[in-house]
Amino acid sequence: MRAAVLRNGRMIERDDVTEPVPGPGQVLVGVKACGICGSDLHFAKHGADVLELNNQIDGFGGSGGMQIDLNDDVFMGHEFSAEVLEAGPDTDAPAAGTLVTSLPILLSSAGFEPIVYSNKTIGGYAERMLLSAPLLTPIPNGLDPRHAALTEPMAVGLHAVNKSAIERGETALVLGCGPIGIAIIAGLRHRGVETIVAADYSAGRRELAETMGATTTVDPADGSPFDDTSPRVVFEAVGVPGIIDDILRRAPVGARVVVAGVCMQADTVHPYFAIAKQINLQFVLAYDPAEFTDCLRAIAEGDIDVAPMITGEVGLDGVGGAFDDLAHPDAHCKILVTP
After folding, report:
1. Closest C-alpha among 9, 45, 40, 50 to residue 263
2. Which residues pair with 4 in a beta bridge?
3. Average pLDDT of the residues in 236-244
4. Is the model's pTM score more than 0.85?
5. Which Pfam families would you find in this protein's record (predicted)?
């Protein structure tokens, strides 16, 4: 079986991967499409740092941390759609041929493993993979499987919106219009927020932000995004050191700040800025099952149009090149792998 794997910091294609066999409660699926996530790009370059930080988190260390050998091939790909091929023994699952997506978690008799980075659990950058029958969500008839594959990243944005508890009449400011920021904008529009300001240095990303629902866009090179707005909720989707402190300094009194950008470096903030203005600071990650199914439904019903986000498509032999292309943010938003 063919799959793209991470080896020595580079994505390469293999044609000798052992075919996975579904156990009880599992199904074998044929991958239809898988989006390349920014977290995959970061792991490819900084995998050792990611593992070290995860193992320092209380409750994540020891046997609960990521047990990954970077000297061995690593499977990735967690934004996927697929076709059911075969169910494991004594498994109640959708019929063969059913198109599905799923939370990226593989259940087994030994427990569970996230389908994110693994030396053994195959992800969506492969011809076939295993999924958990209880977690499968059928793709509504007629929905393009390529669009269904974006359910996962869109759920990340919706989760950030839900955590903010934003009301329709409150102004939202989204800093950063990469895939996470775009998903937040789509989530805000889906929730009926009337004023959505998006800021990014890239003209292409600002244009995409407008397409996805932003009512106003700002180029930070022309001045602070806070100058002409008074946002009640600020979404940080950049993930670089210094930006949280800058937000706390510039945000209005009583603002709510939601941090969705993943910063892997040490950072410094002045708590006094937040204390003086009684700012609520919320960090977010991933989503819950209800948000996942809500996004799939919204995409299927046309409430969220993900088509403009798809800016490229490659086969398994093109994954390495796609990782290189995505290092230049002006060129792409989301590249899909279609095995």
Report:
1. 50
2. 13
3. 96
4. yes
5. ADH_N, ADH_zinc_N
